[in-house]
Amino acid sequence: MKTPKWWMTEHPSVVSFRWNNGVTFGASYSFMISAALGYLVLIFFLHSWMKRRPNPEMDVSRLHHGALRLSSMMHYKT
């Protein structure tokens, strides 16, 4: 069985990937800008929503932090 690191970094489709403007999905400046703005809007919405809840430590933020930590550990695992 292949490791998660192999699937994310050494798989042949990942290694041979080339970014072609106009051909690759999301390879335009408008997509990049709209994705970044959409992310910021989502973050500000979630932040304001979390302030209204009685418990400021939401499960969503814990899950997000855990997912980032897990992906980081898989990436740097030797």
Automatic annotation (TrEMBL):
Transmembrane regions listed in the UniProt entry: 27-46
Domain of life: Eukaryota
Keywords (A to Z) from UniProt: Membrane, Transmembrane, Transmembrane helix
Protein's UniProt name: Uncharacterized protein
Species in which this protein is naturally found: Riccia fluitans
